[in-house]
Amino acid sequence: MVDRRLRICAEAKPAWFDAHNQIAGAARILAPNIVPGILGIGDNLAPAPSLAQAWVWEDDRTLRLDLAHDRRFSSGRPVSPQAVIENLERPMAERGSVFNAHEFSVIGECSAVSESSLVLRLKQPFAPLPGVLANGFGIVDLHQGLPPQNTQGAGPFEIRLSSARGLSLVARDNPATHVEWAFCTGAAARRRRIRAEQADVLIGDVGAAFAETQGWTIHATEGGGPIHLTFNLRRWPGNKLVFRQRVAEAVDRDEVVRAGFRGRGQTGASPFPPSSTFYISPEATGSSNAPREGLAGRLPSLELAVGGAAYLPAARVVAKAIERLLRTRVQVVSIANPLWWPDYYLGGTWDLAIQAWTPMPDPHLVYDRRYASWGIHNAPGYTNERLDRLIEAAATSLDLRTRLAYYADAEQIRLNDCPTVYLGFPDRVLSARPGAPALTVKRSWEVVLQP
Description:
The protein is of the alpha+beta class. The protein contains 14 helices and 21 strands.
């Protein structure tokens, strides 16, 4: 048997790799290869089949899931309805086991109805549930222990070694196939690896320009995850609408794509791209109609924080635009992952922040988490009572058109209040050395490792 080893430089280091608690994109882009979830994310950025091949709402409080046949965990145990129920019951019973426990708390009961099907009976209507199941909740064989130590999933790969420097993976159907998933994220470290011929693939744009000069091939896939500018509404001047409006007008999205994304991406002014099932067109919202006012006082030096090196060029474009318009100094501060997310970003000690998000398979995961007054990712401290009511109403309807109408109204409120400015959707970039196998990078950001 010929040993086959693939050395991949990951674009970010996750704070942790927890099958049930994939709070960061750094874990989500890899996790489906190891611990796939009940549902996945399709190219239309909506829930898609994974361990469950089909799902249907039997009524507004009963969701049926039909599992794919012949799936097994790396432990050898079949992926049965009972095994899935054990996973779902953990966040229902242990609120601290997942970051989004409130989204599982609507489940009242799980039960197997056949050898391959289960139903979830809810305490109240909650239409976003398939999106929750598709969004970073991996299924493991809980007979082998609890996450994060237990990574015995039903994916084609399993983790053999985990360290601060990366993960070592082995293909389950071909133990001679090894993948080194190295937390090699900086440009200088990547250049060293390329020169020493110690890398086969780079994930992300960092180091791609140098790789191209060395004969590597650059592959770009349309990305579905947005990058946006966030204002800290807990401090001045971010708490002033006129400041937020003027910054929003100053930022040139075309320049962000050209210089910030090296031309690889598309502009965007809302959370979902046009190819998404959940896209809300500008015609459905219109432009901001908030009143204008003066900005009193001399602006201080501002901190524009960004996570890691990947979006540092975009942050610099935004900083220069603000400096030109408002004649104040903007200091760009790059915080390496995993220090950036979630601690530094959610800590809210910055004035402005550039943040990228993996694609969300339901609008609720955007508006409820980031913009609701109770949102778990609402770092800026934004609040609007009418938007809160729209989010709650949208969650109760199973009709997509009805839900999107609610979210269009919520999006108009966001535009008017301007707590964030969406900039665009960077492509997902992969660089491969000559002769390296071609990997698939999905619009969901998932990197598919081919055994």
